[in-house]
TrEMBL record:
The lineage of its organism: Bacteria, Pseudomonadati, Pseudomonadota, Alphaproteobacteria, Sphingomonadales. SUPFAM superfamilies: Thioesterase/thiol ester dehydrase-isomerase. This is Uncharacterized domain 1-containing protein. Gene3D superfamilies: Hotdog Thioesterase (3.10.129.10). One of its GO terms (molecular function) is thiolester hydrolase activity. It holds the Pfam family 4HBT. Residues 54-129 form the Thioesterase domain. It comes from the Bacteria.
Length: 152
């Protein structure tokens, strides 16, 4: 796969876009896009994210898996914002308080529809969840979104 012109600037702009999203005020998290088709979200689960039985609620799993897969796919698209059209989850272990990493990887698609997967890795190195999503190009220009910008 060939990288778009200014790929590194695009990756930093996506990181900025993630940080600017209002929903991320609910989660202590940070996105990194190290290369095309790959993303990592570092975040911390705390008791605010727990369900009644004392472990992370599925919303935390979904949010981080969807975001990691989404940004892995959108790292390949420099002009348009992608939209999640489908996402499947497998939760394999309860998640308690502490640091977690969501790792996203692009699987296929380069034009209109993209498929990407993500996994959640707990601080002990064990995978606690996995997800696969389908993402579609929207009509929304990345350059017009608050937070999307290049750093020089």
């Amino acid at each position: 796969m060939t990288l778009p012109e200014g790929a590194d600037a695009h990756f930093r702009a996506l990181e900025s876009l993630y940080a600017a999203a209002p929903v991320n005020r609910l989660f202590e998290s940070r996105l990194e896009v190290p290369e095309a088709g790959v993303s990592r979200i570092h975040f911390a689960v705390d008791r605010r994210h727990f369900h009644a039985a004392g472990a992370a609620h599925g919303t935390a799993y979904f949010k981080m898996l969807d975001d990691a897969a989404f940004y892995a796919a959108n790292s390949l698209v420099t002009d348009r914002f992608l939209l999640t059209t489908q996402f499947s989850l497998n939760l394999t272990r309860p998640l308690g308080e502490g640091p977690v990493v969501a790792e996203g990887r692009w699987i296929s698609g380069q034009r209109r529809v993209f498929i990407a997967e993500a996994r959640l890795i707990a601080s002990d190195g064990e995978e606690v969840a996995r997800g696969t999503g389908t993402f579609m190009r929207s009509r929304i220009a990345l350059a017009g979104l608050p937070g999307y910008g290049t750093t020089t």
